Amino acid sequence: MTTSGATAVMFRPRTVGEAVEMLATAHDAGRAVDLLGGGTDLVPALRSGERRPGAVVALRRVLELRVRGAGADSLTVGAGVTYTDLAGWSLSPGLALAARVVGSAQIRNLGTVGGALGSARPTGDLLTFLTAADAEILVASPRGPGRMTLPAFLADGLAPDALVTAVRLPRPAGPQSYLKIGGRQAAYQALVSCAVLVDRMRHRLACAIGGVGRLPIRMTVAERFAHDAVDWSAGAASSSAARRFGELVSEAVSRVGPELAAGPRVSADYRRHAAGVLAARAFTRCLDAAGAPVDPRVERDVRP
Known about the structure:
Blueprint: E1 2-3, E2 6-7, E3 9-11, H1 16-28, E4 33-36, H2 42-48, E5 55-58, E6 68-70, E7 74-78, H3 83-87, H4 93-100, H5 105-110, H6 113-119, H7 125-132, E8 136-141, E9 144-149, H8 150-156, E10 163-170, E11 176-181, E12 192-199, E13 204-210, E14 217-218, H9 220-229, H10 239-253, H11 268-287
Parallel strand pairs: 3-5, 4-5
Antiparallel strand pairs: 1-2, 6-7, 7-10, 8-9, 8-10, 11-12, 12-13, 13-14
Helix pairs in contact: 4-7, 9-10, 10-11
Keywords: FAD, Flavoprotein, Oxidoreductase
GO molecular function, one term: oxidoreductase activity
Protein name: Molybdopterin dehydrogenase, FAD-binding
């Protein structure tokens, strides 16, 4: 494989075990290694010369990475599962909502869960949802299988001879919503995103905001407010509670640092305002006493 004049060794494993062995071999040989799944990020970077690995491990033939599973209390999604695979998955409606508004149809057909974790973009749709869901990252290495919390994975990364095999998250126990502000179509990258997950069994609500910091952030103060504001016997909350929830999210976002670079379309004040609006809407769609339907569209009418 040639990358901007340099030749990289291409490995094509068929199992996770082979992939780990090939990663270790390349690492021991002193080669920088990139993993190739859907290729939506890596292939353009190779063509432009931005990335020049000494080896590439192509994972498309590893069927183990493309499995989805359900246990009594959890869902497991393989690192090779695409956004298109997730978009119609009834077992996780919130994850399906997030997957439906990722990029274009071509990106959804190619892009994978592992790729979303590897790129760790501040505005990544899947990353925002997984942050709210308290997802756990399953990994494989020469030392055997392991697991990491999502915050630990994002902060510390993986050992160079390890790879992500799957993501594990709790089975839904209530309504879920995912909203984002992009352009006029879902194909646009999110400017600000919000995931809200309700757990009616444990009387909890989780909320994560993406696009306001280097990584999606949990809104812990707003979550504590929701615990007391929701009528858990009815699974509903008032419009005033939704407004206050949005205000608390805006206040939390105003204290986030370091902020992302501001531009003519996306100032820090706009991000703060938009986060609060999205949070209030997602809260309402999950807990509206009138039963407002969950809407996966890209939000447009958000003005300061």
